[in-house]
Write the structure tokens for this entry.
Amino acid sequence: MTTQSDPSARSDEALVGAAQKGDMVAFEELVARHRDKVYARAFSMVRSEDAATDLSQEAWVKAWQRLHQFQGEASFLTWMTRIVINLCLDHLRKQKRLRAESIEQLDEELGGVERQMPIITPNPTERLERSELRERIDRALAQLSYEHRTVLILHEFQELEYKEVAKRMGCSIGTVMSRLFYARRKMAVLLAGLKREGLR
Amino acid sequence: MTHEVELKIQAYLDNELAAAERQQISELIRTDGEAQKVYEALAATKAWVTDNEPEHKLPESREFYWSKIEREIRQQTAPVQATYFGLDFGNWWVRLATACAAVALVGTLAILGSRSGTMISRSYEPQEMELPEEMSAITFHSQSANMTVVWVQARFDPN
């Protein structure tokens, strides 16, 4: 099937409409337009290039299959990001089931290590290039546990409310609040450049 | 300060408190130095993180990435969109009607076969027939009646 005009010049809405009618050229343009953002969300959650590539690819296939369900309440990118997040959560849950729960992990989830940390306020006046700041945040995110990183991503980047985060992660709102608190505290320590032995 | 209060300060920052409690925590942050410190630390971290979301580029070319997606889509959607004899088998009732027609045809052949003795069996050699995925078949052969009945039916899948 062909598009009537240059697909790169068309809006997301027009491309989605065409793709819903089976136009794969329009869908390819949507993939090209948003592939980095969808991949970035997957990578920020799973921290593996291969897994993030596979999961983002799977998300696009799922999106094609469910395109008729997209009603346009949110933007297409928001809808796509939801799909990839759900796939990442499933992937991480499977991984978690595979590895043995250690006392250390359970302790961290409840804020065991972070509970002992001092209250650190990252210094916003510190002059850093934006790219350097992003890299530092990325490195800090990589050092968080899966639970802390996920709650932070869903709340700060995906802008989900506590109850929505709880629903996605399959835990209580209280657990979300606690995880978010300790995730932020740990991020503050890492961003301030305080590397403590034993922090992951 | 208790952990519960710390969480309430955070909920205040995230705009997750009800109006009455919001007023209460606002007052606490204004009057209590420790509460203020907790609030400022949380607010600064939140601002740093949200304003600087890391960016990652897909480590594959557009063409290669799309080719994998396209292949997967075509593999997964091909059976659903398949048509036989110009009919769309995506609707279960079309499949059912087709199966009924097939059954009627087989039944007619079986009756003709039994009435005309060996004529049909001489005229027609047994043939293998490949059925579409939406259909299945059960075969019964009676030596005494010199008859073979083939029951063709649609696999019921309302989706």
The helical segments of chain B are 3-13, 19-31, 33-51, 62-81, 92-115, 119-123.
